[in-house]
Every structure is written in C-alpha cells, then in structure tokens.
Amino acid sequence: FAFRIIIRTRDHEPAHVHCKSSDGEALITIEDQRVIRNHGVHSGDIKRLREFVRLNAAVLMNEWRHYYEED
User: Fold this and answer.
1) In the β-sheet with 35-39, what is the strand arrangement from edge to edge?
2) Which of 5, 9, 65, 67 has the most CB atoms around it within 10 Å of its CB?
C-alpha cells in the first residue's frame, strides 16, 4: 500500500487530492472523501485512501487553500 498524495497547483474544484501508485490513480475529495475518478486503484486501497483523507482532511484542506484561496 504505497501511494503518493498530490495536490496539483493548477487544478479544478472541488478540493481534492490525487492518489497515485504503480497500479493507477484515484481522485478523492477532501471534504467528504468522495471518489471523483478511479483508474486502476483496487477497492480495498480506495477504502484505505478515503480513510487517510478523512483523518488528514484539516491538513490537506489547509494545503489546498494555500494554492487556491486568494489573500
């Protein structure tokens, strides 16, 4: 279970993370952990990724705001 969690600097709403592995990529919303897109990530890994995003939502949203909210 090795994934890179990425917030891209030029991306789209809603606030989300890209979860990449050698198997594929999933996009998961930060606020409600909804899977926006999944290409090749197994369902068990999706469950663990959603839990990771839920547990780290405050940190992830802070990072998202760093790039997308104006001062």
Assistant:
1) 4-6, 16-20, 25-29, 35-39
2) 5
More confident residue, 69 or 42: 42
- Answer for the pair 33, 17: CB distance below 8 angstroms, yes or no: no
More confident call, 44 vs 70: 44
Of 62, 31, 26, 21, residue with least CA distance to 46: 26
Token pair recorded at residue 43: 């369902």
Instruction: Enter the tokens of residue 53.
Output: 């995003």
In angstroms, the CA 14 to CA 31 distance is: 9
What is the C-alpha to C-alpha distance for residues 21 and 38, in angstroms, rounded to an integer? Answer: 12
Query: In this predicted model, what pLDDT tens digit does every residue of 18-68 receive, in sequence order?
Result: 999 999 999 999 999 999 999 999 999 999 999 999 999 999 999 999 988
